[in-house]
Amino acid sequence: MRWIVRLIVLLFVLLGLAAGGSYVVAHLSLPVFNGEVKVGQTLSGPVEILRDRNAVAHIRAASRNDAAFGLGYAHVQDRLWQMEVQRRVAAGRLSELFGTATLNTDKFIRTLGIRRKAVTAFAHLKPETQTTLQAYADGVNAFLASRNGPLPPEFLIFDVTPEPWTPADSLGWLKMMAWDLGGNWGRELATLGLSKRLTKQQIEEFYPPYPGDGPVALAEMSELYRKVATAVDVERLLEILPPERPEGVGSNNWVINGKHTVTGQPLLANDPHLGLATPALWYFAHMASPAGSAIGATLPGVPGVVLGHNGRVAWGFTNTGPDTQDLYIEKIDPADPTQYVTPNGSAAFVTRQETIKQRSGEDVVITVRETRHGPVISDVHDGARQQLEAGYVLSFAWTALLDEDTTADALLGLDSITDWNGFNDNLKRFVTPQQNIVYADREGNIGFVAPGLIPIRRADNDLKGLAPAPGWDARYDWNGFIPFEQLPRSYNPPRGIIVTANNKIVPDNYPYFITADWAEPYRARRIEQLLKERNVHSVESFKQLQGDTMSPMVSEILPLLLAVPPKNLPRNSELAGSHALLASWDGNMSINRAEPLIFQAWYRELTRLILADELGDAFQPLWRFRPILIRNILTNQNGQSRWCANQATGATTSCAELVAEALDRALDDLKTRYGSDMARWRWGEAHAARGTHRPFSNIAVLRRFFEVSVPTGGDAFTVNVGRNDIANDKDPFANRHAASLRAIYDLADLNRSQFMHSTGQSGHVLSPHYRDYAIPWAAVEYIPMSMRPADFETGALGRLRLTAR
After folding, report:
1. Which residues contact 701 (CB under 8 A, 6 or more apart)?
2. Which terminal Cβ of the chain has fewer Cβ within 10 Å, N or C?
3. Residue at 96 is within a domain
C-alpha cells in the first residue's frame, strides 16, 4: 500500500513539473555537474568530469584507475536506477523490489548462479583489472556517500537505498550481456517441446539450414524427447523461460580500407541491435589519463569503453551467435534420487539452497541441483516431484559459467591497443559472448577476429549441440575449445572490405562447428550491395547506409503473396486497394508509408494460419517471422506446402487459400487498430520504437513519463533494424529491438567520428538529457565526439572536480 501512495505522490510531482512547477524538487534530485567534491578515497590527483554540449562525460585523471573512479562517479550520477536494476537482475534479487512478478526470473538467475560465478571470475582476472574494477566501484560509492538531496523518483517509490557497489556487480552485468547475446539453448528447449507434436523431419524443416548449406542430419531421439518433455513440463518451461534469440537481435559492422574512401584511410561502422530500453543500454564517455585514452560507448556498471577508439585503433562488435550452450537430459538414478547417471556410473547432485526475498511476501527458498554439465534448469518451475517420478531432469552447460572467465581483462585492455598484433594478444582472454570484432588503425590496416570460447564437439556427436543430449553418453560432452589461433579472422583482405551482420562468417571447409543458427543473410547482403554501389565512401555515405530501410525479406516474400489473387477482389475495394498498393511498392519500410504496415499485418496473419494448428501450445512462445521457413512452404520446397493443411480438422487447405484469408484478416485487424481510412495508416506510428522502462512501462499512468517512444522505420531484416514482436497481440508492430547505438569511425581523423544512442545520457526522468537523443536517433542523425579539448570544452554543460580529502 505504501508504494501506491508514493506512486500517486510522484504522479502529482511529475504533473507539476510538466506544468512548470516544482523546480526545487527537480533541482534537488538531479546530479550536480559543476564545482568540487571532496571524496574519501585516495586518488593520484584530481579527477575532472566535464559534460560537453551533448552531455557526453569527458573524464581526465592522473592514472588509469583514477579515470575508472571518475567513470564510476559519472555513471552513477546519471544512471543510478538503471545500475540498481541491472545488478539486481544479475544477483537474482528483483523480487525484493517487484514481488512475485519477477520471482521466476530470480529463480532462474539464482539457479544459474550468475552472481556466484561473477565473484569466482574476479579471482581469475589480472591484478591490474581487479584494481580497475575496484577503483570504478570506489567511484560509484563515493557519489553514494557524498550526494546531497533525494534519490531519483524510482527510489522514492520503492523506498530503497542502494547498497555499496562491488566488482562482482560489474562482472555480473557482463555475464547478463553474455546471456542476452548467448547461444542456442532456446532452440534446444523448443525442439524438446516440438517433439510432442512434430516429427523429426518437421522439426528439421521448422529450423531450416542457412542458405546454401545442407540440412544437418540429427540423431533420432523422438521417443526419448517425448518422455523428457512430459517429465520436465516443457510447456511450462517455454512460458517462464522464453526460448530462442529473436530475429534482429545482433548487430551490423563493416570496415573498408583506404582504397574505397575519399580520404584514403579506413572507415569503420558499427550498430549493435539490442532490446530497446529507457534509459539506453549505452552511455557515452571519454576516459583520458597518462596511461591511455579511449572514447565511445560504455556500459553503466562497467568500467572502460566497450565500443569506440583510443586515438590509434577503432573497433566494433557484432554477435557471432555461437553455440556455446547445451541442454543435457540427465537420468536420475532409480535406486537413489539424489544421484544421476554418468558415463562412469552414478554421481551425486551438488546442491545448495538459495533464499529469495520478496516485497510484501514470504521468503522463497529453492534448492539448486548441479551436475557435471551445469545447473538443473528444469527445477525452476514447481514440477520437481514430477521429474523425479519420470526419471529425467534438464541441466545446462554454458561457457559463461566457467570459473576462469577473463573477458573483463580483454575489454579493459582495449584502450591501450596500438596495432593488430596487440589487438589479438589482448583478445585471447575474451571468453564470452563470442563477438565478430572489426578493427581499423591509423596506419591503414583493417581486420576482424571472432574471439571467445567455442566448445569442440566430437565427430561422433550426432546432435551437434542443436538438440538436448543424453547426459549419460560421453560422446556428447564438450571436448575442449577451438584454439584462439584457429578462430575466424581476416587481416587486410585483398578486396579491402569486411562485413559482418550475424551471418555465416566461415567457409564451408572450416574445420570446426560454431553454430547452425547464423542469422539470415539479408542484412549482410544488403550492406555488401550498398558498399559496391559507390567507388569511394565517406562518413556521409556510411550514415546513409546505416539508415537504409529497404527490406530484402519483403523483396523475397511479397511476390509470393501477390501471386495469389485475393478473395472477392472485384467486389472489395479495400482488398483491391491494398493489393494495388503493395504491387507497386519497392519494399522500403519507410516511416511515412502504409504499405509496410499492410505487409507486416498480412505476413503476421499468414504465419498464424500456417503454424498455429501445427504447433499447438508451443505456437505462442515460438511465434517468430521465420521467413526462410515460410518461403520454403509457399514455394513447396520438398513438399513443405503440407504445412498449410489444417491439422485440427484434417482439411486439405491450400497455401493459396491461407494467403488470401490472411489478407482479409490483416485488413480487419488494421481497421480495428488504426481506423478504416487506409490513407491515414503510417508504419512509423505503428512501429514506434519503445524503450522499455523497468518497471514503469507496465503502469499506464506512468508510461508516458518514463518510457521513451519515437516513430521509426525498418524491420527485423533491414540494415536500419527495427524488430517488432508479432507474437504480441496487444502491440505487434512496435519496434522492440533496434540499433541501440550507431557509430562511424574516420581513421583519417578519429576526432571526426560520429555517434548516437537511442534515448539520452541521463536516466533521471526529470533531466533535459533523459530523451534528447531519441528524435535524432530515429532520424539517423549523429553527434560528434572528439578527444580534442578545444572541441569538447566549447559549450560545456559543466565541469566537476573530484579531489581526495
Report:
1. 11
2. N
3. yes
